[in-house]
Structures are given as C-alpha cells and as structure tokens.
Amino acid sequence: MDVVRILSSIILPPLGVFLQVGIGLHFSLNILLTLLGYVPGIIHAVWVVLRK
C-alpha cells in the first residue's frame, strides 16, 4: 500500500497526503505547497508518507 501512496504522491501530491493522513493540517499545507510549486508539494507528500 505504501507503493501506491508514494506513486500517488509523485503524480498528485495532495492525493498521497490524503490517503495517508486524511483531511487536516498536512493536507492543507500540501495543497498550498503544490500550488506554489509542484516540487515542494512532492517533497512534502513523500515525507508525510514515509514518516509513518
């Protein structure tokens, strides 16, 4: 299941964060980072998925 989350984090970062932690602070932060620049959103999403 982590492989699916990591792949979804690379393709669509907020989806990977949503699958890992649901809607909350990290989800909102990831949407903001993705809108500001795609790469920071990917880095944050992969960090959230690998953190647990």
UniProtKB/TrEMBL annotation:
<dbReference type="GO" id="GO:0016020">
    <property type="term" value="C:membrane"/>
</dbReference>
<protein>
    <submittedName>
        <fullName>YqaE/Pmp3 family membrane protein</fullName>
    </submittedName>
</protein>
<keyword id="KW-1133">Transmembrane helix</keyword>
<feature type="transmembrane region" description="Helical">
    <location>
        <begin position="31"/>
        <end position="50"/>
    </location>
</feature>
<comment type="similarity">
    <text>Belongs to the UPF0057 (PMP3) family.</text>
</comment>
<keyword id="KW-0472">Membrane</keyword>
<dbReference type="InterPro" id="IPR000612">
    <property type="entry name" value="PMP3"/>
</dbReference>
<feature type="transmembrane region" description="Helical">
    <location>
        <begin position="7"/>
        <end position="25"/>
    </location>
</feature>
<keyword id="KW-0812">Transmembrane</keyword>
<dbReference type="Pfam" id="PF01679">
    <property type="entry name" value="Pmp3"/>
</dbReference>
